[in-house]
Amino acid sequence: MTTPTNERITPHRIRIFDTTLRDGEQSPGCSMSPQQKLVMARALDELGVDVIETGFPASSQSDRDAMAMIAHEVRRPVLAVLSRCLAGDIETSLRSLEAAANPRLHVFLSTSPLHREHKLRMTREQVLESVHKHVSLARSHIDDVEFSAEDATRTELDYLIEVARVAIAAGATTINLPDTVGFTTPEEIRRMFQQVIAGVADVGGAANVVFSAHCHNDLGLAVANSLAAIEGGARQVECTVNGIGERAGNCALEEITMALKVRQAFYEQDTAINTPRIVATSQLLQRLVGMPVQRNKAIVGANAFAHESGIHQHGMLRHRGTYEIMRPEDVGWEDSQMVLGRHSGRAAVEQRLRALGFWLEEEELKLVFEQFKALCEQQRVVTDPDLQTLMQGGPSNQ
Ligand code: KIV
Ligand code: ZN
Predict the structure, then answer these.
(1) What 3-state DSSP class applies to 341?
(2) 151 CB burial (10 A radius; 0-12, 13-18, 19+)
(3) Which of 68, 113, 200, 238 is the most buried (most CB within 10 A)?
(4) By alpha-carbon position, which residue is closest to atom 1 of ligand 1?
C-alpha cells in the first residue's frame, strides 16, 4: 500500500498530532469503546487537528474495530496507528490502515540505556538494527512513516542522533523524540532538538523530515517543554484533549494551541486548530470518559474566565485586557464570568444588578451592598436569584 505523503510543512505552521484516542485512552479510567472513539474522532476532525492517532491495533480487537469505523468516516486528517518494532505488529497495523484516506504508520522503539537494558534486553547495535529493519519494512508499504525513539530525553545524545540517522535513512518521514516520563526541562529539550536536527542534516531526505515533540507531564512541564521543543525546531506536537494520558498525562492540546496563538508574536508559529471548538471538544471528552477537569484547568476549566476579586472585577469592567489574555469566545466559552462572592466589590454588584434590571441610587446601592456582604458571610457565591431575593426584601434581606 502506498499513500501520498503529507503536504510539505511550512516553517510557521505547527502540526497538531492528537493522541487522545491512543496515549490518552490508555491511561487509567479513560478507556473508550470503538463507538465512543468514533464520536471523539469526529469532534477532533471538526477541531482541525492534523493527525489523529486512533490506537494500537496489535494490542486489541477494540482498537482494530475503532480504526475501521473511524477510517470509514473521518477522511480529512491523517490517521495514524501505533506499532512496536515487530513484523507482526506492523502487518496488523497496515491492515488497519488500509481503509484510511491518509494513513500513517507510527513505529516506536526505546532508545535509552535504562529501557535498552531492563525493558528490551537489547544492545545499542541491536536497537539500531531493529530500527533500520522495521522502519524499512513499514516504508516498503506506506509513504508516511513516523518513528519514535521512546525515552529519547534519557538517551545519550550521540546515540540518539545515530538512531535518528538510521530511521531517516530507512525512510521515516517524521521523527518523534518523546519525553516519555516527563523528565526533561525546557532548556534541555530545546537543545536536544537543535542538536539532533543538526546531527542528521547531511542524511539524504532529512530536509523533508518533520521533527515531533511528545511530552508527558510528570513534572507539570509538558506544555512548556513542547514550546521549547518548537524553539529547537520541532514542527509537530503530540498532545491530548484535556491533557489526559499515562500518569500525569500528556501535553494538553488546548494549552499548547492557545499558548502558540496568544504568544504568536514570540513563537511566530500557529496551528490550524479551530479554537472556538476547544471547549465543546473538551466537554465531550469529559462526558465520554467520565473524567471532569479541575475548575482551575487552563482554558477549559470552569474558572478559566471567572473573576471574583473586587480589584479584578473593577479592572475587567473598565477593560477586559486588564485580567484576560484571550477572549473566552475564542476558545468556545460564551463569556467571562463575574462571580459574586466575599471578594467582590461594589462596581461588580452594581453591574450585575443593572443586568437584572435594577438601577439604584447611590444610597440605595450602599445599603444593598452591605446586605450583599452579610449574605457572603453565609454562602460562598451569590447568584442572580439571590440578588433578586435581596432586592425584593426576601429572606436573605432580613
Ligand atoms: O510516551 C511515549 O514515548 C509514547 C511513544 C510510544 C510515542 O507514547
Ligand atoms: Zn506517550
Answers:
(1) strand
(2) buried
(3) 238
(4) 180
Q: Is the CB of 150 within 6 Å of ligand 1?
A: yes
Q: In this structure, which residue's CA is closest to atom 7 in ligand 1?
A: 148
Q: What is the ipTM of this complex?
A: 0.99
The CB density around residue 266, as the number of other CB atoms within 10 Å, is 11
End-to-end CA, the chain: 77
pLDDT of residue 2 exceeding 90 = no
**Ligand 1 pocket residue status of 108, Cβ below 6 Å:** yes
The answer to whether the CB of 23 is under 6 A from ligand 1 is yes
Provide the grid cell at 175.
521523527
What's the CA gap between 238 and 85, in Å, rounded? Answer: 20
Three-state DSSP class for residue 237 = strand
CB 7 within 8 A of CB 208: no
CB proximity list for 398: less than 8 A, separation 6 or greater: none
DSSP category for residue 119: I
CA of 249 to the centre of ligand 2 (A): 8
pLDDT in tens, 210-233: 999 999 999 999 999 999 999 999
Half-sphere exposure of 279 (CA within 13 A, CB side): 18
CA of 365 to the centre of ligand 1 (A): 59
Distance 272 CA to ligand 1 centre (A): 23
Model pTM greater than 0.80?
yes
Helix/strand/coil for 11: coil
Ligand 1 atom at minimum distance from 108 CA: 6
Instruction: Give the tens place of pLDDT for each residue, 348-371.
Output: 999 999 999 999 999 999 999 999
Residue 7: pLDDT band (50, 70, 90) is very low
